[in-house]
User: Fold these one by one.
Assistant:
Number 1:
Amino acid sequence: MAKFYITTAIDYANSNPHTGTAYEKIGADAIARWKRLQGHDVWFLMGMDEHSMNVEKKAQSLGMDPEKYCDGMEPKFTELWKALDISYDDFIRTTQKRHIAAATEFFRRVHAKGDIYKARYSGLYCVGCEAYLKPADLVEGKCKNHGTEPQKLEEENWFFRLSKYTQAMIEHIERNPDFVKPDVRRNEVLNVAKEGLEDISISRATFKFGIPLPVDPAHVMYVWFDALINYISAVGFASDEARFAKWWPADLHVIGKDITRFHCLLWPAMLMSAGVPLPGQVWGHGWVHYKGQKMSKSTGHLLDPFDVINPQPGNVRFENGDTPKIEAIRPCGADALRYFLLREVSWDRDGDFTWEAFIARYNADLANDLGNLLHRTLKMVNTYCGGAIPAETEAGGTDADMVAHMDALPRDVGALMDAQDLSGALGRIWDAVRRANSYIEEAQPWALNKQGKAARVGAVMTNLATAIARISALVYPFLPSSAGKIREQLGLPPKPEGVPGAWAALPAGHKVREGAVLFPRIETEKKDAPAAGKPRGQGGGAPKPK
Ligand code: ME8
């Protein structure tokens, strides 16, 4: 299978990661894991963006050297990514030697091409965007992305001839409909290009924390020109030709919709200028909102992912301000957050995190649907079949329909993943979970057992265990840790070998185990006073083997 090089945006080091920035990494991780499952040779890059005015200011406000400050920030990111099971292969920092060398060489090539010149510029600068704004970027005099007032700046800087690439960019985007996705982003970017691109200032003399320009060391490289180069410096640009040839061009840059212009217009034009091939696709995902507003570092409106993974009393707040009486606050785990974000916030648009929706999804989809399916199935295989797939089976009932549903599952999920419809793929997997649960109700294995129909019970148990094995492989890119636990209980290796092929029943004699409850329900009210119509708790829905 072909190589697949995937990257995320590299986060500014000036404040902690939050649930919005985590969403991007979780989505990219699900894609990377899916590609690995398909057999691709995957390289997954993430990192930290350090040479920004914001970072220098933050370090100064703490009386710290900016690089030391960034050293202290690195674990705040990497520890969260680890806790969220993000399977990145490399973490680049723009202060690393490999990046500085690559960025310096890249600058030289663009300069040698005649695409860099010095000029005076004045305009309205947004520190949050690290960019000069145009009138269309302002709402009531404030930046539409950050809600803050831009500063008037006048500087003599080095400029990149972005305008020269206007026509080439329009043609590239028009000829390659998959270059900018989803389509809403493509249209926005194309419209910007059609208005005509303006040359962009790519140096600063007003601060020191940056890569000095080889042609004018009093200036440092502007943060975006510097940061975008990370995608090539991490895979050997200008240092390891074989490695660079193996991985570049990137197959997919995953970024937020606020930074599509930099990735879909500036970056490709820079690459054209330097004679480097363009990436295959840029995906501009939407924003995660919390309490009706975009989560954002600049406004401080944030939700700490650790508060969801491991909620503390008082952190769980409903939209009306109530702090629910969660009986015992148990860790929900990274998978619960991964599931919620990828299911509820479509990969191509904005969505909300609310505690109400999070707890409802957790209890209904994870505890009730998936947790119960596993629990009740293994309980029955243990009680009726001595804990192993039986040799004697007899088809009947709705077996054929359920098997056909599970047979089609990997193909359907594959098609949705190819379209980067992550939430749709999870929806399709949950259709299968619910199909398996309804199959239990249809087959009534406890009644078959009572009637002494051992071969029918055998067929139902085989079908159920096989269905869960297929589901566990497909859910692995989304819920890696839970998929591993499900597979261990099913007597399978925790990591699936690949995307399941055509339906093939687990062999007779294959042993299963019964392990701990996977997703204990989150109780928001006292157990002795259950709210009417609440879904059943895990285990509560398992039929009592008779
Ligand atoms: O933009 N929901 O860094 P950053 C979803 N250093 N995604 C969000 C979000 C939200 N509420 N808030 C931020 C930068 N993001 C630059 C990138 S790449 C060469 C340089 C996304 O720390 C945001 O869109 O401000 C971006 O893709 C990423 O998080 C990092 O944002």
Number 2:
Amino acid sequence: MDIHEYQAKEILSGFGVEVPPGALAYSPEQAAYRAREIGGDRWIVKAQVHAGGRGKAGGVKMCEDDHAIQKACEDMFGQKLVTHQTGPEGKGIYRVYVEGAVPIEHEFYLGFVMDRSSQRVMIVASAEGGMEIEEISAEKPDSIVRSTVEPAVGLQEFQAREIAFALGVEAGLVSQMVRTLMGCYRAFSELDATMVEINPLVVTGDDRIIALDAKMTFDDNALFRHPQVAELRDKSQEDPRESRAADRGLSYVGLDGNIGCIVNGAGLAMATMDTIMLAGGQPANFLDIGGGATPERVAKAFRLVMSDKNVQAVLVNIFAGINRCDWVAEGVVQALKEVQVDVPVIVRLAGTNVEEGQKILAKSGLPIIRANTLMEAAERAVGAWRNDLSQATRMRAVT
Ligand code: ADP
Ligand code: MG
């Protein structure tokens, strides 16, 4: 789960990371009022969306008076901000963060990520901040400092000092850099984050180290341990199909194609999507109903898939190991009776009790297109989607 910059800053500041004074606003007037409360004579108005690259896309504006703040806000509120991280559809701006402008002397990049190959938290830092990490690694790869943290002991001060030295931090600022690194690491590990990124982390004209940007991502599977983090979820920033699925305990990723997939297990979901593409189609989603595919779950999954207007065929691909094909087949039949499904449905079942499962589908009298292998199922789904009904009917006759 992603959170907003202002939320990440509030969390990190609780762990000793210095951030500029700032406040959230939901309207242009409130933003101007907030700026007066913050004081000073220059402010930055920042669109709060779950994506980086806002600066270049017009989502971060420097303002010198009330009028400029209101104008900046009017240009942002209600708009979709399209950055290189949002995809072409962009993300809606419903909140802005107003911050006192900080005089920047130097910008660093600082990131904490889960490094799966070393199975450790990895700190990635560079003295070439301000650019995205992808640009830094393409243009100044030698400037990147990497260090992994031993989980049994956590980040040690000597290690944080080494990172500060490797970045060329001035002697007088090393202890502030160490405090920043230690704070980010503690926030990362105590809150089960999967990513903390500060870009830029700046040295100011008056020798302070301040986080001007902050991004945090959390492990969804650990959110139950951190209700105060789970509360920060902002559904306006998520794909509505994915939010609805998450609310129903299903794992769903919306895609751009036309073939809806209902599958059990993430690996099978990937294989199903690959096979659909191999057969010349495009999946509309990745939907994993998980292990215990009860009829209720299957019905929920159908409802969700059918709510996507792009779906022109649904492929159900279940491999029953712990599950049983007859239960799943009952689920499919029940779902098709409950949910209005006006597109072709292709079902491929394999594993435990597959014959009983097939019988239930056949006896249901519902227009279900059955397939024995995944390739067959994908081809039938693609055939049906292409509205090549003659092909679909011919195949149904063969089954
Ligand atoms: P993004 O990474 O989404 O573009 P940032 O928060 O990094 O957004 O802001 C973009 C740029 O705006 C920063 O690299 C920094 O140069 C400048 N900036 C952001 N916040 C401040 C601030 N409080 N004071 C001065 N400059 C800022
Ligand atoms: Mg940034």
